[in-house]
Amino acid sequence: MARLGREDWLALGRAAIEEEGPSGLTVEALTRRAGKTRGSFYHHFESQGAFLRALAAAWAAEGGEGLATERGLRAIPEAAEALAAADAARLARFRATLPAPGPEGEAYAEIAQALRLGALLMPATTEARLAELQALLAAMVEAHWHE
Q1: C-beta pairs of 104-107 under 8 Å, 24+ apart in sequence
Q2: Which of 56, 70, 111, 142 could form a disulfide with 82 if both were Cys (CB 3.0 to 4.6 A apart)?
Q3: So what's the pLDDT on residue 86?
C-alpha cells in the first residue's frame, strides 16, 4: 500500500467535503475512506482541528473556488480564518476589475460578495448558475459606468 502524504490527506478531505459535507471530515471517516490507520493521519496532522485548518487554508490558497467545498467549510468553525481570507481576496479581485474606485465601486464589490454568499445558501445553485449570475452582474457594472 502506498503511503499518503500531507497533500494526499488534504485532497482526500476535499473530496470528502464535496461528497459528504462536514460529516465526511472526521478522522474515522477519512481513515476509512483512505484505507489507512489513525496513526497515518496523525503523522501529518496533530489533531482533527489542525487538519480542518490546513484544508481550509489550502482551499483559500487555491483561490477559494468550489461551491460544495465552501458550503461545507462555512459549517466548520476551524475554517473561519481561511474563509475570511478568501472573502477578502475575492473582494479585492472584484474591486480590481472595476473601472473606477469609490463608493459605487465598493457597493458593487459588496453586491458581488453577497451574490456568492447567497448562492451558498441555495443548495440548488450550481457553479454554472453562479457563473451566469456573476456575468450578469459584471454586465450591469459595465453598463453603469458607460451610461
Answers
A1: 104/144
A2: 56
A3: 92
Taking the CA atoms of residue 93, residue 96, residue 100 and residue 104 in that order, the dihedral angle to the nearest 10 degrees is: 10
SS (H, E, C) the chain: CCCCCHHHHHHHHHHHHHHHHHHHHCHHHHHHHHCCCHHHHHHHCCCHHHHHHHHHHHHHHCCCCCHHHHHHHCCCHHHHHHHHHHHHHHHHHHHHHCCCCCHHHHHHHHHHHHHHHHHHHCCCCCHHHHHHHHHHHHHHHHHHHCC
pLDDT digits (tens, 9 = 90+) for 68-124: 999 999 999 999 999 999 999 988 888 887 766 677 777 888 888 888 888 888 888
Q: Which amino acid is at 32?
A: R
End-to-end CA distance of the chain: 63
- Residue 12 contacts residue 27 (beta carbons within 8 Å): no
